[in-house]
Specification:
By secondary structure, the chain is α/β, with parallel strands linked by helices. It folds into three domains: 3-90 and 183-214, Periplasmic binding protein-like II (D-Maltodextrin-Binding Protein, domain 2); 95-180, Periplasmic binding protein-like II (D-Maltodextrin-Binding Protein, domain 2, 3-Layer(aba) Sandwich); 217-283, Alpha-Beta Plaits, CATH 3.30.70. It has helices at 13-23, 50-59, 69-75, 123-132, 165-169, 189-193, 195-214, 229-235, 264-273; strands at residues 3-9, 27-28, 37-38, 43-49, 64-68, 80-85, 95-102, 117-120, 138-141, 156-161, 172-181, 183-187, 217-225, 243-246, 252-260, 277-283. The longest helix has 20 residues, at 195-214. The radius of gyration is 24 Å and the shape is globular.
Amino acid sequence: MRLRIGLPKGSLETATLQMFKKAGFNISRSQRSYFPVIDDEELEVILIRAQEMSRYVEEGVLDVGLTGKDWIMENKSRVVEVVDLVYAKQGLRPVRWVLAVPKDSPIKSVKGLKGKRVATELVSVTKSYLKKNKIKAEVEFSWGATEVKPPELVDAIVELTETGESLRANNLRIIDTVLESTTKLIANSEAYRDKWKRKKINNLALLLEGALRAEEKVGLKMNVPGEKLKKIIAILPAMRTPTLSKLSEDNWWALETIIDEKTVRDIIPRLKGAGAQGIIEYALNKVIY
């Protein structure tokens, strides 16, 4: 038996393949192929645009796939949302669909869109957003380059952003967040009821979550004299109590822990100053709670 999985083609592709590699799956493909090879005989991989993924999973063409909450909502797909995988093209964070207008536009809020024209790829969600705010406006589908359309072609846009940098570069001003979205591992309802497939999907979710947790963490090892042990442990913001092992040399301990990578540059000098020796920092592939 095999599990057919869809991976997102496009902006999320590189980040997704890297995540799978850290999770323990090596995926290789030729540049133009949409059917990568994976070193797991129980998986069959196909690359599909994230915008279409939830439809194919809902219909059972795929057993499981990775796509954004935004496209699940846009397609009104009925799928099993197995797990949130919070990552994007530029980092480990949610993305936003925002309402934006030209910097010099008189429109200050969604209320100013009455009778106006809005361009977006996320048409259904945008219409629901306007309806919720009791605003009647024309919403048109954008095939791309949405940021360049205001003010000549449309009055406002609803566009995906991580940092807002592209919008600012095109002299646009964000006036509201329409939707915050994360990447999700989704499954076909029938496939998820199958005992073998469900177990395979849940195991995959476990490994992918572990790979993401490891992205911003590192391991630290060091040797510590017994009289300095309490002082050094107090410095460490560990996920759990640090692991201690007695060394053969009297009153010396080996200490190992996991910490956020962003804190390492500040903590290592403090550890050294407090008496730690032989400090080793190492990368992690997976962190499983």
